[in-house]
Structure formats: structure tokens, C-alpha cells
Amino acid sequence: MGKGGTSSVDSSGVMKKIVLSYMYVGIWIFLSFSVIIFNKYILDRKMYNWPFPISLTMIHMAFSSGLAFLLVRVFKLVEPCAAMTRDLYMGSIVPIGLLFSLSLWFSNSAYIYLSVSFIQMLKALMPVAVYSLGVVFKKELFQSKTMTNMVLISIGVAIAAYGEVRFDLYGVVLQLSAVCVEALRLVLIQILLNSKGISLNPITTLYYVAPACLLFLSVPWYAMEYPRLVASAPFHVDVVTFGLNSMVAFLLNISVFVLVGKTSALTMNVAGVVKDWLLIAFSWSVIMDKVTQINLIGYAVAFIAVCYYNYAKLQAMKSKDQKPPLKVSTDEENLRLLDTHQKKPSETHKSAI
């Protein structure tokens, strides 16, 4: 009866972890989907027609910095990190802010040159980059089966790229650069949150990272977009459009930190393939991006490889949580029995007294 009860508790624990993990993934997919479509709408010359990706990213970071500051310093709903020092900030937060700014800059810029569907196909390479960097930084164990899945994902993306109709080399370079930088950023976030003993919640993470990201973005913005903005017609801020867009981006940033902290960077990026399928279907049916059969075949290969990876990881999780306690060796058991027999006479004598 006891064993059955323990097994039931273990199964319940596994199911709870699975449900929570997929809940985090679902929230992240919804927010990521919304931000991508929203950014595409603003940046695309055929839609809102505001092709200033660095400026848009800076608006997001300024909004996140301001809101995080209000929550931490003014309303004091969240406590700042007591362990944060200048050396820690410069050595950990600043590099993440730099990578974050580059990732957002490159990825947002790619939407001007490539279709939403093709960008999502290229993003399927993210698990390959994250897994490789995870092995290098010893956050992931090297396994031949996992590497086989990563190779299959790469092959599938290559096939999809071969069948792309709207192929722009500059846009592809931008998106692949964003993938590499983002993968490194996600691994460093995992190290920062889990390996250095720093207690940061999503709000305080943005409180420290967003200002650094805003500072780094100001350099290319001043050199590349500021002259164009000055030369163009006077720009009046659309408070509703940019405010709503910034709020969704803020929530997405929080969901990224939560998801990586609760699961792993690799899990987030592998789950992102499901989001990519939804975006491909949306761009094909609503935005009217052309998706060829070769695109779909290639991406299907990558998707199958990711599904197998998820299945293998789920089995490993169940095996780990249901693993029985270590069996006591025969020598240790004999010593314990001998010790018990030696204590019995004295215990009996105490009882008689």
C-alpha cells in the first residue's frame, strides 16, 4: 500500500511539472506570436510603413526600463537584488544587455527583407545553436541521439531555405546572426539565473538588463537611423499603437526569463518550433506570404526531429523522478544489524531499572 501511494505521489509530481512547463510554453508562444505579427505590421513598408527597427526596439526597452523602475523603486512591489554589485553588473548584466540589443536589432531588421514564414523556418536552427553552446558551457550533456536530432533539424531548415521564393541574402544574414546571438544570450541567462546564485525575478532582470540594452542600441541608432528620422517628415507618436506594442513586448520579455528559469533555454527554443508552425500558417493564410511545398517538406523534417526530442526528454524526466532510492549495500546492512544487537542488552537493562 505504501509503495503504491509513493508511486502515485511521484506520478502526480511528474504531471505537475509537465503541466507547468507547458503552461509557461503556451504563454510564451502566445506573446511571441503577438509581438512578431505586431512588429511585422509596424516595420513592413506595405502595412504601417515605419521601417526603423532600432528605433522600435529602443521604444520597447525604454518602456520596459521605465515600467520596471516604477515597480521596483517607486511602488516597491518588487525588491531589487541585494547581491548586485558593480563588478557583478559589469561582468554579467552588461554582456547580456549587449547580446539582447544585438539580437533584437538583427531580428527586427530581418522583417523588412524576409517573409514571416521564412524567418520562422530559419529560427528553427535555434535549438542547434543553443544545444551546441549549452554543451560548451556545460549546461547540457552531449548525447549522440540529441545531436542527431539537431542535425536533422538543420537538414530540414536547409531544404526549406532551398525552396524559398522570397530569398534575400542580407535578410538571411541578419536572421542567422540574430539566431547565434540569441542562443548565446539565452545560455548566459541560464548561467546567470541558476549557476551564480543570483536571485533575480523577471521584473528585476528587466530592471537591470533593459537600461544596458537601451544604452547599447543608442550607438547604432544615432549613426544609422537618427539622420533618416530627422530627414523624414515630422513623426507623431502613435500612443495607442506603440504603447500596446511595447506592453506586449514587455510581457514577452518577462515570459522569456520565467520560461528559461523554470525549464531551460533549449526547451524554450525547441517549443518555439510549434509557434513557428502557427506563424507559418498565419502568414500563408492572412498575410498571404507564399509558402512552397519544398518549404513545408523541409520544415516538416525539422518538426519531426523536434517532436522526437520532446518525447525523449519527457521519458528522461519520468525516469529521473520515478527512480527508486539507492539500495543500501549488504555490508552496511550487516553493520546496522550488528549495532542493533549490541544495543539490545543495555536497552533491556535500562528498561528493568
UniProtKB/TrEMBL annotation:
Pfam family, one: TPT
Keyword list, A-Z: Membrane, Transmembrane, Transmembrane helix
UniProt membrane topology term: Multi-pass membrane protein
Localization, UniProt: Membrane
Alphabetized SUPFAM superfamilies for the sequence: Multidrug resistance efflux transporter EmrE
GO cellular-component term (any): membrane
Region (Disordered): 323-353
Entry's Gene Ontology molecular function annotations: antiporter activity
Listed transmembrane segments: 21-42, 54-75, 87-106, 112-134, 146-163, 169-193, 205-223, 235-259, 266-287, 293-311
Domain Sugar phosphate transporter residue range list: 23-310
Principal location listed in the UniProt entry: membrane
Any single biological process term in GO: transmembrane transport
Protein name: Sugar phosphate transporter domain-containing protein
Organism for this UniProt entry: Physcomitrium patens
Lineage, opening ranks: Eukaryota, Viridiplantae, Streptophyta, Embryophyta, Bryophyta
